[in-house]
């Protein structure tokens, strides 16, 4: 079922859908405990009837069926038929019931916490396994919203669904006890419950609409705000941030409106049952006492039964209302999980990757949409050498690197590593042999060490220092008061553009890759620093294969091969088209 279809069906059905989704077996102990608690409480309340009769009259006369049950319990426990024994039974029942309730609360707390972390882990796992193209079309805010707000509210919806189940079980038990003690009182309560349910449908629908609006507005706000903050510096520098921030007020207004609706309908759904119960209780008491002539003790017990039954009916209604107003978060999270699952990368290759000879593109054609980006491209990246790709912006250089990493799949032609087609290669192992410096360097808000080691326990401080040295960064890092443990700020904002690039280069070198891909990796550096890095990379010739995508002359000068990409075709720098045969040239 799609997200919209689910949200179109009844909130009660959805509450059970939520419970089923996380394994009905999990609710078995809770349901059994609730049934037991219900019966014990029922027995306690039934004891009220003989208590009142005994208080009323020491010779109670003919006993009704519920009273007979209570007295047989007394006989079973070898207790006398006295007021004291009845009070003891009543108090014991209530204490046992309270103890069971405390245990069920513990159980609910544990299971809800489990579901919250299961939801979060599932969405994270699915996202981590999704193809790169999935991330290029979805706003980041969607994922942030999924792992934060939606996971928390998702667990809350599970909790409210459990409450629906618990209150329904209790209501059914009270119906049974009510029918046993006084069927007229029970019928009044059941009719009242059905009436409440019908009225509540209106609030449920309105609450669900408000919940959906709130979830969509929250997600929109997170996406837009994230975008604005990520690119805040130029906006602030041009003083154009205010118009953008004002644009966010559309979402904040929508959140405020939907929040108002949510609270309003929830309050109404809470207040109405109380009003109805009070009115009906007065009317029922009048009818029972004046018209039906029931005795006071039976009426008091029936009153307690009706009240308890109605309390559970209104708990069901409230829980349904709460489920309806927050379930949109849960189903949106499930939709993200499903979509990410469908977008999962499929790894078919098993061969161990090796790069001793060359990576080759053989008549490769690729398009993102209708328009081909690469047409019949052939090229060779020899192992242990430096290959440089040059060409106009948008000509397809980064796309070549992405295809080599298996981030996208070719439409036709093939890519090979030492002669083995890429689709036969274990892609995860291949990528772990790659050092990659992208065009837009984005550091994490942590220390320099964190940004290079990336949490890998196998990477030691000496490894990080070596990588920093190779990246021409050790000098400036050592000059910082905290050295490699200096914080870099949000997205590396406390470092210069060139320093950020060198940290990113150290990150790409630290695990001693076989292939180093540099996508405009030195564009922010001064010529001297760039020349130093070129020399370091050159010194590793033989061990390291380099694919440099650049407009910088330095990488063209030191390259063993240079390819120019022109509108999706690759030619050598002397102008000879190299498709479909492989060729290369030094400028
Ligand atoms: N994920 C994508 N989805 C759709 N089109 C894309 C995507 N990535 C790139 N393109 C398009 O593919 C073409 C080639 O992009 P690519 O990034 O490979 O160019 P490039 O040569 O590296 O450019 P630059 O030198 O500006 O980085 C461009 O027209 C670009 O708009």
TrEMBL record:
Domain ABC transporter per the UniProt entry, residue ranges: 359-585
Bilayer disposition of the protein: Multi-pass membrane protein
Keyword S-adenosyl-L-methionine set for record: no
Segments crossing the lipid bilayer: 30-52, 81-100, 162-181, 187-203
Signal sequence interval, chain numbering: none
Domain ABC transmembrane type-1: 32-325
Main subcellular location: membrane
Entry-linked Gene3D superfamilies: ABC transporter type 1, transmembrane domain, P-loop containing nucleotide triphosphate hydrolases
Molecular function GO terms recorded: ATP binding
Name this polypeptide is given: ABC transporter ATP-binding protein
Native species: Dongia sedimenti
Lineage: Bacteria, Pseudomonadati, Pseudomonadota, Alphaproteobacteria, Rhodospirillales
């Amino acid at each position: 079922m799609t997200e919209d279809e689910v949200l179109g069906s009844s909130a009660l059905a959805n509450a059970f859908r939520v419970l089923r989704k996380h394994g009905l077996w999990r609710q078995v102990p809770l349901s059994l405990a609730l049934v037991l608690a219900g019966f014990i409480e029922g027995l306690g309340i039934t004891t009220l009837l003989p208590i009142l009769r005994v208080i009323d009259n020491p010779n109670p006369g003919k006993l009704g069926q519920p009273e007979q049950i209570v007295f047989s319990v007394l006989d079973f426990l070898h207790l006398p038929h006295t007021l004291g024994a009845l009070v003891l039974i009543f108090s014991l029942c209530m204490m046992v019931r309270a103890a069971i309730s405390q245990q069920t609360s513990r159980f609910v707390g544990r299971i809800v916490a489990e579901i919250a972390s299961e939801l979060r882990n599932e969405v994270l796992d699915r996202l981590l396994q999704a193809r790169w193209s999935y991330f290029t079309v979805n706003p980041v805010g969607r994922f942030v919203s999924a792992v934060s707000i939606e996971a928390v509210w998702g667990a809350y919806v599970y909790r409210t669904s459990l409450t629906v189940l618990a209150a329904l079980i209790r209501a059914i038990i009270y119906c049974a006890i009510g029918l046993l003690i006084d069927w007229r009182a029970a019928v009044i309560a059941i009719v009242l419950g059905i009436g409440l349910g019908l009225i509540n449908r209106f609030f449920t629908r309105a609450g669900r609409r408000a919940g959906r609006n709130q979830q969509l507005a929250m997600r929109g706000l997170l996406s837009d705000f994230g975008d604005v903050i990520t690119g805040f510096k130029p906006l602030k520098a041009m003083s154009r941030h205010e118009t953008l921030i004002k644009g966010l007020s559309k979402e904040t207004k929508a959140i405020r409106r939907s929040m108002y609706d949510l609270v309003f309908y929830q309050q109404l759904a809470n207040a109405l049952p109380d009003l109805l119960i009070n009115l009906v209780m007065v009317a029922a008491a009048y009818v029972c006492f004046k018209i039906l002539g029931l005795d006071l003790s039976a009426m008091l017990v029936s009153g307690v039964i009706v009240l308890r039954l109605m309390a559970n009916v209104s708990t069901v209604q409230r829980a349904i209302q709460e489920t309806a107003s927050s379930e949109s978060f849960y189903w949106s999270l499930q939709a993200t999980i499903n979509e990410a699952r469908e977008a999962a990368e499929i790894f078919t290759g098993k061969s161990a990757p090796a790069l001793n000879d060359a990576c080759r593109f053989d008549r490769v054609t690729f398009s993102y949409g209708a328009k081909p980006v690469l047409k019949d491209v052939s090229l060779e990246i020899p192992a242990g050498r430096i290959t440089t790709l040059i060409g106009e912006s948008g000509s397809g250089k980064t796309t070549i690197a992405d295809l080599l990493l298996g981030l996208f799949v070719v439409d036709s032609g093939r890519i090979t590593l030492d002669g083995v087609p890429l689709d036969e290669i274990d892609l995860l192992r291949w990528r772990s042999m790659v050092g990659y410096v992208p065009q837009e360097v984005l550091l994490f808000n942590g220390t320099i060490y964190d940004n290079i080691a990336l949490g890998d326990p196998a990477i030691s401080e000496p490894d990080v220092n070596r990588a920093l040295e190779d990246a021409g960064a050790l000098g400036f890092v050592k000059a910082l008061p905290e050295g490699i443990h200096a914080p870099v700020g949000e997205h590396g904002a406390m470092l210069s553009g060139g320093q950020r690039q060198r940290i990113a280069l150290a990150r790409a070198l630290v695990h001693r890759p076989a292939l180093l891909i540099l996508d405009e990796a030195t564009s922010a550096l001064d010529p001297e620093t760039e020349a130093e890095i070129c020399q370091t990379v050159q010194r590793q010739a033989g061990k390291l294969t380099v694919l440099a995508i650049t407009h910088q002359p330095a990488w063209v000068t030191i390259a063993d091969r240079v390819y120019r990409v022109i509108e999706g075709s690759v030619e050598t720098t002397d102008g000879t088209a190299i498709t479909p045969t492989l060729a290369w040239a030094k400028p």
